[in-house]
Write a structure and sequence with these properties.
By secondary structure, this protein is an all-alpha fold. It has two domains: about 90 residues, no CATH class; about 220 residues, MetI-like fold. Helix 7 packs antiparallel against helix 10, helix 13 runs antiparallel to helix 16 and helix 15 packs antiparallel against helix 16. The radius of gyration is 25 Å and the shape is globular.
Length: about 325
Amino acid sequence: MTAYLIRRVLYAIPILIGVNLITFILFFIVNSPDDMARMHLGQKRVIPEAIEAWKVERGYNLPLLYNGQVEGFRRLTDTIFFQKSLKLFAFQFGLSDSGRDIGYDISQRMWPSLAIAVPVLFVGLLLNISYALFIVFFRATHIDFGSAVLLVILMSISGLFYIISGQYLMAKLWHLVPVSGYREGLESWRFLILPVLVGVISGIGSGTRWYRTLFLEEIERDYVRTARAKGLPEHLVLFRHVLRNALIPILTGVVAILPLLFMGSLITESFFGIPGLGSYTIDAINNQDFAIVRAMVFLGAVLHILGLILTDISYTLVDPRVRLP
């Protein structure tokens, strides 16, 4: 197991280097530091002195990859690539173009994102699996047909509809929760309950339909027929056998997205004014703060790779036939 994990981590290094290089090319070669300065200053005619001052203040006055004006190892370290990209591997995110500490912002903003994403994940998982098992229990009946139609309708509705409807009904009409905003401490639940509810409801259609498909595939297998032949009740067949043997594809989807919970929801946090990592990324894009965008892209790649490793490890916990080399 240890050797396997080390090998997977070593495999991840070239992937992260590739992501880093592509990000660097997009931000610094396609879009030069001079262009970034002009966009940040927001003026049609910017004098060269203002551009140079902006670059010096943020460290963009250095050469991109190689600094021939210095000697020794500094020819590689005194470059934009080393200062702005390679330091990301040590999780040194540096300062944003507006002068804020990106690492500190991430450490503060990850908690509101988790406060929304974790309940949405686990409540949605429990609701979707329970509803899917209920549909499979009454398969080939009017309940099955009606549920299939309902799930397709829920999948066809845009997530913005749930957000706007939830804000109008629960905040504007019924005055149960605030429309948007966030407050730390014990009162945070009043601002989080509506985003969590919207997130759970918007995922019922696709989630339940996917779990229903998994359970219908399992329920036709030979071990299910054997369990029924031994006189096991249908509800025990579903929970003791079908659900257990469907855990691998379920974990494939769940464990892979667990690290991505830290990244937050771009749309939900922006509409509800939650100061999480999702709204942090959207604000950085709107403000053309490329330092934050680079950091979030790299962090997303790291978390995605971590999720894939956790998925492989989880296979050994639910299926004894799976053994990691």
